[in-house]
Amino acid sequence: MDNTQGSADAVLRKLDSLLPDLEALYKDVHSHPELSMQETRTAAVAADRLRAAGYEVTTAVGKTGVVGLLRNGDGPTVMLRADMDALPVEEATGLPYASKVTAPDREGKTVPVSHMCGHDMHVTWLVGATRVLADARTAWRGTLMAVFQPGEETAEGAQAMIDDGLFERFPRPDVVLGQHVMVGPSGTIAGRPGAITSAADSLQIRLFGRGAHGSMPQASIDPVVMAAATVMRLQTIVSREVAAAEAAVVTVGALQAGTKENVIPDEAIIKLNVRTFDAAYGLACSPRSSASSMPRLKPQARHANLRSRLSTTIRST
């Protein structure tokens, strides 16, 4: 594609006239969020916009993914990518177009849903980019490949699309361009060589104890105490396992155990997220991979008859 100033001006000449429609699209997607791998409405909106702009559209790629192709003569294939899914978080912005959506998650629990990671903006950006490029085909040559990806938040969607033949059924791109909304002044675009955003590993740790009545803690192997001790020790991983010149974040986002204040449950679940720029530190921050960084999971080990078990599930992006 031609990157001269003249070509850029030609591509962007109709942008101002598209902004009211794109703002309406953003508000619509924002007020109708969908959980990961459930993005049927959002995918349909994206597919309709691509068809209206003259793209060859394929839906249901990797379940709910959408691929649009615009062939415009000889030249490189450029893939533009946006994610579509929202998060199980209640919106409290008070905006007139705020999400009031609830939906069942994969465990069957009804949860609030909202776009708290900017994927509504990403969808809008990609729709806008595909439209202005379609309207300015005389300014560039090649193939434009627009990919609306599901399941970014759960690290499923990209792999699902690849497994469904993304790079076999469609042209293999010469370059892939993506973007992410960040905190900062409106209208500012930033970039730099090398990594900008981190890799993420999501872990679920299940601690198995032995339940008992709250009046008889001596009869239990208390997973709540084990989970609390684990959370506190996890906070030392970055300060004691990662070199001072490197960067990593370990965040515990959920600790779930029991349903009644006077009953000690028999298990607890910790959900955490690890962010790294170096794959070596991603492994170092994993409880499964770094025994030295894990807390001792038997806080009641002074009693010889007490035992606990641990299972870990790791998901990477």
Task: Describe what you observe in this structure.
This protein is an alpha+beta fold and 317 residues long. About 6% of the residues have low confidence. A five-stranded mixed β-sheet has the order 1-2-6-3-7, with helices on both faces. It has nine helices and 13 strands. The relative contact order is 0.14.
Briefly summarize what is shown.
It contains nine helices and 13 strands.
Question: Which helices and strands appear, and what pairs or packs with what?
Answer:
Elements (H helix, E strand, L loop, with lengths): L4 H8 L2 H17 L8 H13 L3 E6 L3 E8 L4 E7 L18 E3 L5 E3 L6 H17 L6 E8 L7 H7 L2 H4 L5 E3 L21 E10 L3 E2 L9 H12 L2 H5 L6 E9 L6 E2 L2 E10 L2 H6 L24 E8 L1
Parallel strand pairs: 3-6, 3-7
Antiparallel strand pairs: 1-2, 2-6, 4-5, 8-12, 8-13, 9-11, 10-12
Kindly estimate the percentage of residues that lie in beta strands according to DSSP. 15-25%
The ordered string of helix (H) and strand (E) elements is HHHEEEEEHEHHEEEHHEEEHE
Helix and strand content put the structural class at alpha+beta
Radius of gyration: 24 Å
Into which percent range does the helicity of residues fall?
A: 25-40%
Q: How many H/I helices?
A: 9
How are the strands ordered across the major sheet? 1-2-6-3-7
Query: Mean of the pLDDT scores?
Result: 88
The largest sheet is:
5 strands, mixed
N- to C-terminal distance: 30 Å
Residue stretches low in confidence (pLDDT < 50, at least 5 long) are 288-306
| Envelope shape | elongated
Number of strand elements: 13
